[in-house]
Design goal:
The protein has twelve helices and 13 strands. It has helices at about 70-95, 125-135, 150-155, 165-170, 180-185, 190-195, 210-215, 260-265, 270-290, 295-355, 360-380, 400; strands at about 1-10, 15-20, 30-35, 40-45, 50, 65, 100-105, 115-120, 140-145, 225-230, 230-240, 245-250, 255-260. It is elongated.
């Protein structure tokens, strides 16, 4: 039996199997291994498992040791040296005006060589650049040309979904992606929406392609003529996940039906089980609601309102009776005031008569008979002329004419 453990050299790199020997390893541990390019530091993906020797892969290599503190410190120094190497190499590329884009510089674990990753449209003559780098770093230089997808994997970033790129988080291998996958899922063929950071089609288009292709097998294509309720209709759109089809007849009316209804040619009626389920669901909802408490509350509110109205009516009646009493008292007061006023007038007249001089009383007595004679004369002469001197205001009074 052999203990095999899968290792990876990058966060989302490919996994390689090594012989764990008798080392006790767990996921996340860092170990030192021997590769074709020299020694390197790798990360344990899952704990080791035992397999038979016959089923072991060819060229299986052993793990040298678990990474020590010195190994971790050397890895940190190499990471710091990678930044300076990247900056120097970019300056040389600009000086020599080479049509290439430097992506990353990576030191070997033992510092025996430096690998420069770059992208370019075609072949680049970088022999002079290699001489400059070797003369400056005094080590072995390796230039490696990569594609745009590998560039996105090394650089990293966020996709249009808002999450970290699949290629730099968990995707270890690139699978081919075609426009047919986008068409099968009914997506808009807009390059800005179906392309990733690398400029190629999104890798996630292939995740659900098989599911869509299976669900779409028995569904009609858009534009096909089908019979629905003894009418000829045209398929306008498809809902693959819900297995529904939108139909439009010659009159222009459209409707959405399921695939089962389309096969039978008529709309399916709800079964007794569905009706009973709906009834039980509605009964549960009605039972859960506090229906009995509502009419009580309403009755209590009605009683309170009626009591308030009766109280208001009683108060208004009391106020009306008080107003009537006050009116009666006011009328009595007015009558008493009138009586007092009349008494005062009679008293004043009595006092004025008593206070008149005697001469005035005599004159009044003398004038009384003369007034009677004049009135008799007026009556006698007034038969010939109109009584009362009713005419214009300029005519003399009848008393003066008689005189």
């Amino acid at each position: 039996m052999i203990r095999i453990v899968p290792l990876k050299f990058q966060q989302a790199g490919r996994q390689y199997k090594f012989n764990a020997l008798s080392l006790e390893l767990k996921s996340g541990d860092k170990v030192i291994v021997e590769t074709d390019r020299g020694r390197a530091m790798a990360i344990v993906v899952i704990p080791p498992s035992e397999i038979e020797e016959n089923s072991s892969p060819e060229g299986l290599k052993n793990i040298l040791r678990i990474a020590t503190e010195e190994d971790l410190a050397m890895a940190e120094t190499n990471a710091a040296r990678e930044k300076t190497a990247h900056h120097f190499c970019r300056g040389r590329i600009q000086e020599r005006k080479l049509q290439m884009k430097l992506v990353r510089a990576e030191y070997a674990f033992d510092g025996s060589k430096i690998i420069f990753f770059f992208t370019a449209d075609g072949r680049i003559d970088f022999r002079e650049l290699v001489k400059d780098l070797a003369h400056h770093f005094h080590t072995r230089i390796e230039m490696r040309q990569i594609g745009v997808r590998d560039e996105a994997k090394l650089v990293g970033g966020l996709g249009i979904c808002g999450r970290e790129l699949c290629c730099c988080s968990f995707l270890t291998q690139f699978s081919p992606v075609s426009v047919k996958m986008a068409k099968e899922q009914g997506l808009a063929l807009n390059p800005t929406k179906i392309s990733g950071q690398c400029g190629r089609l999104l890798c996630c288009l292939g995740y659900e392609y098989e599911t869509y292709s299976k669900l779409k097998k028995g569904m009609p294509k858009c534009g096909k003529k089908v019979m629905w309720e003894n009418r000829e209709c045209e398929v306008t759109s498809l809902d693959i996940l819900q297995q529904k089809v939108t139909l439009r007849d010659r009159e222009g009316t459209s409707c959405q039906v399921t695939m089962e209804e389309l096969r039978t040619g008529q709309a399916s009626q709800p079964t007794a089980e569905e009706n009973s389920a709906e009834e039980t669901h509605s009964s549960r909802l009605t039972n859960n609601r506090p229906q009995r408490q509502q009419p009580r509350k309403q009755g209590e509110k009605g009683q309170q309102q009626s009591q308030r109205r009766t109280n208001k009516g009683q108060q208004s009646q009391k106020q009306g009776s008080k107003g009537q009493q006050s009116q009666k008292q006011g009328n009595r007061g007015q009558q008493s005031q009138k009586q007092d006023h009349k008494k005062q007038q009679n008293a004043d007249q009595a006092t004025s008569e008593q206070t008149k001089p005697v001469d005035q009383q005599k004159k009044q007595t003398q004038n009384k008979p003369t007034e009677g004679k004049s009135q008799s004369n007026r009556r006698r002469r007034g038969r010939r002329r109109p009584r009362g001197g009713g005419g214009s205001g300029n005519k003399p009074a009848p008393s003066k004419q008689g005189e």
